[in-house]
Amino acid sequence: ICVNFFLYIYLQKLLNVMKAKIIIALFLLVASFSNAQELVWHTDANKAITESNKSKKPLMLFFTGSDWCGWCIRLQQEVFTQPDFKKWAKDNVVLLELDFPRRTAQDDKLKIQNAQILQVFGVRGYPTIWFVNAQLENEKINFSQLGSVGYVAGGPEKWVESAKTILANKK
């Protein structure tokens, strides 16, 4: 009886350890899957261009006023945070956010970079999204414009459809 009792206790502890390991493994699996869907929004143009050239994907330049532009905020919420857009973007473009906030502090170097790129594209309204190929030569950026789009009503499906049309016409 005594041996059976100790064997029972030992098996219970072993079972609890195995349950804990299974729970931890499932947690790590779910965490890795959710991270796989997260997008990288670059703010440094040079890094984004390097990634674009390495991956052979065009850049998607998102000109935004993140803390004041209602249509920019709406585009973020309705499209850019949605799984359909995330999957498409991950497979097709390198993302570069060019933000022009009014209330949020921004590094001077970033302000200058964003203003220079804004001037190159002649952006007059927000949100504006340009699809481009870019080369970095002697610390100078050369952009090849593929097309632009803004807010498109209809959610991620309609927006991605318009982006696909731009990219398909330029291949």
Supply database-style keywords.
171 residues, elongated, alpha/beta
Write the SSE topology.
Layout: H1 2-36, E1 41-42, H2 45-55, E2 59-64, H3 70-80, H4 83-92, E3 94-99, H5 108-121, E4 128-137, E5 140-149, H6 155-169
Parallel strand pairs: 1-3, 2-3
Antiparallel strand pairs: 2-4, 4-5
Helix pairs in contact: 3-6, 4-6
Give me the side-by-side strand order of the main sheet: 1-3-2-4-5
Low-pLDDT windows of residues: none
Beta fraction of the residues?
A: 15-25%
What level of helicity do the residues show? 55-70%
**What would the average pLDDT be, to the nearest integer?**
90
Number of helices: 6
Would you count the extended β strands for me?
5
Could you please describe the fold and organization of this structure?
With about 170 residues, the protein is an alpha/beta fold. The protein is about 55% helix and about 20% strand. The protein is built from six helices and five strands; from the N terminus they run αβαβααβαββα. It has a five-stranded mixed β-sheet, sandwiched between helices. Strand 4 and strand 5 form a beta hairpin. Helix 3 packs across helix 6. The protein starts with a helix and ends with a helix. The mean pLDDT is about 90.
